Predict the structure.
Amino acid sequence: MMKRLAFLGVPIVSFLMVAACSSVPIPGVSVGLTAPNLAAGAGPMASSAGDADFKKDEVLCLFEQDDPLTGRYYVGRVLTPASPATKNQAEVIYVEDGKKGWSAKVVLSHKADKPDFDVGKLVLYPSGWPNHEKMSQDNYRFATWKPGHVTNNDELFKGLIEVDGDKYYAKYLRVPDAPLK
């Protein structure tokens, strides 16, 4: 009986070893690689992460008494526009938690484009999201936004822009429609 098990065991163990080694990469050998299906002129699908944007009527609202050039901004919708009667503050509802508040600065903005990435230009970036290639629609809208300056654009060909020393994906950066003061 023992000889029979040894006789069957050797081929089984050998087969398992060969099968296990088939997944080990061998330098210079590419087996089983598949290319994307580009039939009928269809290109690769764009990631929905690149489509992250604010919804209609959403603006950036300066947090409480922060400084417009260094402070924190949150995405919100204006309920009551700023006026002399409201001491030039806008009543807003914040997207992230649905709470109402007052903001001394409401900023209209748009997604940044190549001309906005010159060194020294002011952009708005989602704080805490450097080097993140993927960002959901909710993460984009619920982020804390900060103003910063482009400090390097050498990797724009990779989609990366350095803002205040940290790299951000260009597709997530914004530009204020009017100067921050």
Residues 15-50 have pLDDT under 50 and may be disordered.
